[in-house]
Amino acid sequence: MFSVRIGGNGMGTRYYLVEAWALPDVLARAVEAKRLLSTGAAKSVTDAIETVGISRSAFYKYRDAAVPFVEMSAGRIVTLQGSLEDRPGVLSGLLNRFADLGASVLTINQNIPLSGQATVTISLRTETLTGDVESLLNDARGLPGVRSLGILAAG
């Protein structure tokens, strides 16, 4: 997931949460080049752009247009929404897993179960998370009784 900035030139800036597969290849490559530079895997812009296969002008044009969601959500509040099976212990198991991974649960809203499942919305503070938000989601989706779980908002 990436946060993508679109706009400018008098239009105002708007942000979108976009899955990586939907990004133009050049934008994803610019983000990768920026990562190579920030981690020290590339010693210069020239090394980074040669590694990912884009031009210098493309790098400078797109380097700040997209930020990986993992970076954007670090130390922030993330709101998740999902569907849980209507069985004892499913919600508490999910909340315990969040706590085990270092997330601080701020709010929980669970709707009345219908047809054996309940919609739940949970807001988490991520500043003490031991991994990243994507890892937390993937881990939580594998828990018994969790039918679906995704990001509703981040701020």
How would you describe this structure to a colleague?
This protein is α+β, with helices and mostly antiparallel strands and 155 residues long. The radius of gyration is 19 Å and the shape is elongated. It is built from six helices and seven strands; from the N terminus they run ββαααβαβαββαβ. The chain is 35% helix and 32% strand. The longest helix is centred in the N-terminal third of the chain and has 15 residues, at 25-39. The chain has helices at residues 25-39, 45-52, 56-62, 69-73, 90-100, 133-141, and strands at 2-7, 13-18, 66-68, 77-85, 104-110, 117-125, 146-154.
Order of helices and strands: EEHHHEHEHEEHE
Task: Sum up the overall morphology in one term.
Answer: elongated
Helical proportion, percent range: 25-40%
| Order of strands in the sheet with most strands | 5-6-4-7
The helix tally amounts to: 6
CATH class of the largest domain: Alpha Beta
Low-confidence stretches: none
Compute the CA-based radius of gyration.
19 Å
Under CATH, the homologous superfamily of the largest domain reads ACT domain
Q: What integer is the average pLDDT?
A: 83
The CATH architecture of the largest domain can be given as: 2-Layer Sandwich
Gap from first CA to last CA: 15 Å
Report the major sheet: 4 strands, antiparallel
Structural class: alpha+beta
Give me the count of strands: 7
Strand content: 25-35%
How many structural units, i.e. domains? 2
CATH topology of the largest domain: Alpha-Beta Plaits
